[in-house]
Amino acid sequence: MEALLVTVAIPPRSLSPNARVHWSIQAKAVKKTRVDTWAQTQIAMHEQDVKGGWKHAECRVVWYARCSRRRDKDNLLATLKAVFDGLVDGGLLVDDAGITHLPMRVEVDARNPRVELHLRETDGSETPIL
């Protein structure tokens, strides 16, 4: 099983589920985020010698924010929808439905805010929690 670290920029606020923006502004932000994630995925796969084409994966998101104010992790994860689509566009995943999301961490890095996606290929046999 392979593992990969993909680092992307903090997505624009217009991708938040709470954003009230014109559809064209949101569409441009989605496209840019998907393309940027595609590029970062390709770079990470090349540098870390990962083949891709994973059917199932675990993903732990570490969101490095500029300041320590409280954030709603559910909204942050929803903001990353275009990022997960970009992982598929980049060839790492066959479908983003195969991602098992591990609990997110929010850290502070005022000098370098970013989102790190710690991905690990799995066989898809994880047991659901009931």
Query: How many beta-strand segments?
Result: 5
* H/E element sequence: EHEHHEEE
The oligomeric state is single chain
What shape does the CA trace take?
Answer: globular
The biggest beta sheet is recorded as: 5 strands, mixed
How many helix segments? 3
Q: Percent range for helical residues?
A: 25-40%
What would the average pLDDT be, to the nearest integer? 95
Low-confidence stretches: none
What gyration radius follows from the Cα positions, in whole Å? Answer: 15 Å
Quote the beta fraction. Answer: 15-25%
N-end to C-end Cα span:
26 Å
Task: Quickly list its features.
single chain; 130 residues; alpha/beta; 3 helices; 5 strands; globular
Structure overview:
By secondary structure, the protein is an alpha/beta fold. The chain has helices at residues 23-47, 73-79, 81-89, and strands at 3-8, 57-65, 99-101, 105-108, 114-121. Strands 1, 2, 3, 4 and 5 form a 5-stranded mixed sheet that branches. Helix 1 crosses helix 3 (81-89). The radius of gyration is 15 Å and the shape is globular. The model has no long low-confidence stretch (mean pLDDT 95).
SSE order and pairing:
Elements: E1 3-8, H1 23-47, E2 57-65, H2 73-79, H3 81-89, E3 99-101, E4 105-108, E5 114-121
Parallel strand pairs: 2-3, 2-4
Antiparallel strand pairs: 1-5, 2-5
